[in-house]
């Protein structure tokens, strides 16, 4: 993949050329954009530390030779190695906030962002005092919640020490050290006796069939954050069995399971999950009130042991 620097000299040149190359290489777009133009614009502008919303009149600015070489290198990696743009830039956006990301964590893309921006209306009985972001990865969900609920204490929990290193960098970047902190935890194991008004989780939930069929871009992400057993529910079953012990009396549990929604419904036909809808796209996110978690805890435990 080469292009003559004498012919590609402006931002517009590189974006247009990248779009053509992306289409020709049949790249997959699923880590923040859904089309070649937005992906090319994100990569070209982001690599040069230019804002996404900059006026198109600046796209005709000519680039220096070193800037052209930098873009050539990044575009080559995006096309030939299928590295997602967020990893190439070291940054992703979630709820309008920037987050440090690398291949130790998943790239933020959860539809839960829409719930956070709406302050979870109308689902929360009151503003939560304690929030748990379970399987936090980069910490984006919990940190975004900390921006919406200014008096809340937020715990970011994950099994991966590598992921928690990234989450701690993001806590520091956003200046939230006084009320957001990390805990190493396999499910709820590292949180004995702790209760929360709101537990949110985007856990690994990809079933074996979907994991085998994923586009190449996804294999740059940590498998620990994606795959979780034949039906994708190995961790979700544990979470459901233990959630009642970690919610306050009127607490709320929100969990994303994506395409594994069908497995959840098949495994627990007796449970009236609230499946949330999203105006901006997304699916497979359920809500349970603490009362429901208590009522069905014996069932959840039985199904976990059976599997």
SSE succession = HHHHEEHEHEHEEHHEHEEHH
Low-confidence stretches: none
The domain count comes to 2
The CATH architecture of the largest domain: 3-Layer(aba) Sandwich
Describe this entry's structure for a reader:
The N and C termini lie far apart (49 Å). By secondary structure, the chain is of the alpha/beta class. The mean pLDDT is 94. Helix 6 (140-148) links the parallel strand 3 and strand 4. The protein has helices at 11-25, 36-47, 65-81, 85-89, 112-117, 140-148, 161-173, 208-212, 234-242, 261-267, 290-295, 297-306; strands at residues 91-94, 97-100, 130-134, 153-158, 180-184, 196-201, 247-256, 274-275, 285-289. It is built from 12 helices and 9 strands. The protein has 2 domains: 11-89, Helicase, Ruva Protein, domain 3 (Orthogonal Bundle); 95-306, Vaccinia Virus protein VP39 (Rossmann fold, 3-Layer(aba) Sandwich). It is globular, with a radius of gyration of 21 Å. The strands form 2 sheets. A 7-stranded mixed beta sheet has the order 5-4-3-6-7-9-8. Helices cover 37% and strands 15% of the residues.
């Amino acid at each position: 993949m080469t292009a003559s620097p004498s012919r590609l000299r402006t931002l517009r040149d590189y974006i247009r050329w990248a779009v053509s190359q992306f289409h020709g290489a049949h790249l997959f777009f699923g880590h923040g954009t859904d089309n070649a133009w937005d992906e090319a614009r994100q990569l070209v502008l982001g690599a040069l530390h230019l804002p996404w919303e900059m006026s198109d009149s600046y796209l005709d600015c000519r680039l220096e030779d070193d800037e052209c070489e930098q873009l050539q290198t990044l575009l080559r990696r995006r096309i030939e190695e299928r590295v997602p743009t967020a990893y190439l830039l070291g940054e992703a956006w979630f709820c309008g906030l920037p987050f440090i990301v690398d291949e130790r964590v998943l790239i933020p893309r959860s539809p839960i962002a829409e719930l956070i921006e709406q302050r979870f209306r109308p689902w929360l009985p009151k503003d939560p005092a304690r929030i748990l972001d379970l399987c936090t990865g980069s910490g984006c969900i919990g940190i975004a919640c900390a921006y919406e609920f200014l008096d809340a204490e937020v715990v970011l929990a994950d099994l991966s020490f590598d992921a928690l290193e990234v989450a701690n960098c993001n806590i520091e970047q956003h200046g939230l050290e006084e009320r957001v902190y990390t805990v190493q935890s396999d499910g709820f194991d590292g949180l004995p006796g702790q209760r929360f008004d709101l537990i949110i989780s985007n856990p690994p939930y990809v079933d074996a069939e979907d994991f085998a069929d994923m586009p190449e871009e996804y294999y740059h992400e940590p498998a620990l954050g994606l795959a979780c057993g034949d039906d994708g529910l190995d961790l979700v079953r544990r979470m459901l069995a233990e959630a009642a012990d970690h919610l306050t009396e009127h607490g709320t549990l929100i969990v994303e399971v994506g395409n594994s929604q069908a497995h959840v419904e098949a495994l627990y036909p007796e449970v009236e999950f609230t499946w949330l809808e999203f105006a901006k796209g997304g699916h497979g996110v359920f809500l349970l009130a603490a009362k429901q978690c208590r009522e069905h805890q014996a069932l959840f435990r039985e199904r976990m042991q059976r599997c």
